[in-house]
Design goal:
Strand 9 and strand 10 form a beta hairpin. The chain is elongated and about 75 Å long. The longest helix has 15 residues. The chain is an alpha+beta fold. The chain contains 13 helices and ten strands. It starts with a strand and ends with a strand. It is 48% helix and 18% strand. It folds into three domains: 48 residues, no CATH class; 95 residues, Orthogonal Bundle (Arc Repressor Mutant, subunit A); 110 residues, Arc Repressor Mutant, subunit A (Orthogonal Bundle), CATH 1.10.10. Helix 8 packs across helix 9 and helix 11 packs across helix 12.
Amino acid sequence: MENSRTTIKITRELLALLPPHFASALALKEEDELELSEATPGVWVVMRKDAQQAIECLMQQKNCAEERHENASEKELALLKKLESIKFDQRIPNLVNKGLTVAERKTLEGLIKKRLVTVYREKKYAKTGVYNIPRQVYAELRKKQACKEIETPSNPDELLKFLEENGYMTVNEEEKMKTIAFKLEEQKKAGEIIGTRGFDRTFYIMKKKTYDALLEKARKAIEKGGTPSQVAETLKITETLARTMLEIMKEEGEAIEKQKNMFYTA
């Protein structure tokens, strides 16, 4: 097999020979195509030929024809997260659909059409069916969730705890910042804390070790220009952390903001 990869088209005869749970899990039907790739000698990976493209379009929001509109992708991600939050044995289509809005049901139809959600109809679910999120989609979804925004607390002590746990924080109130600054004075003198105040009047604070760990990657991300959201996607961090990083890089002479929200290396 050239390049250790081959494509197989599903025929009626082949479909009849495949284990029912295998065909159901991949939502296979006649004329579908499977791609076989050799991962290591003697170990082969089998997946739908169209699955990887669909996953990348949804999870990484590439400019594919079906995923070009960012809001549509966000709706699909939101619905996938909603399905994931429901226990597997309670994802019976009739029950789940009753709890969805008309818009969500339409979004779900699109996910099923793209094979990003399948209906498993084996064993005890043979009659009712159950919504299933394929393993590849589930893995990508978990990665996406890992980079979602973290709710920032409002209490000064909670904010300090947030800083210790996440390496950064943002503060919008000047009086609150005075309280926090007093408690961080020793760390600031030791060079462990850096920060700045942006044009939006927000205070951006980071642990120096967090800043140093991200600096080189952030520099590369804005070599040709980048917004906080683009940097967040490239570095797989939250957009708030990306903005905090860029604001402090600007303060440190590492970046310049040539136009609003567009940063370049200095």
